[in-house]
Amino acid sequence: MGEVKYVSRVQLERKKGPLRLAIIPAESEPVWFGVHGAIAEHYGVDTAKLEEVHATTLDYVVAAAGG
What long-range pairs does 25-33 form, CB within 8 A, spacing at least 24? Predict the structure, then answer.
């Protein structure tokens, strides 16, 4: 195995329910994660009761893979 070239240092903090705040390298502002639509339904989250709706971590993974 070769030498490690990069280690991602990410901080993740759960705020309330599915709402999470991530500190990600190279981003000047924190990134919010949450649930919406079918993902919220799958986990039994009533989106009408959510104070904020944000993209899911799955949304970010798909966007990264597509890039």
Answer: 31/60, 33/57, 33/60
The total of structural domains in the chain comes to 1
pLDDT digits (tens, 9 = 90+) for 9-24: 999 999 988 899 999 9
Residue 25, domain member (yes or no): yes
Question: Which pTM value belongs to this model?
Answer: 0.77
On the 0-12 / 13-18 / 19+ scale of CB atoms within 10 A, 58 is exposed
The answer to whether residue 4 is domain-embedded is: no
pLDDT digits (tens, 9 = 90+) for 31-65: 999 999 899 999 999 888 888 889 999 999 999 99
Helices (H) and strands (E) in the chain, counts: 2, 3
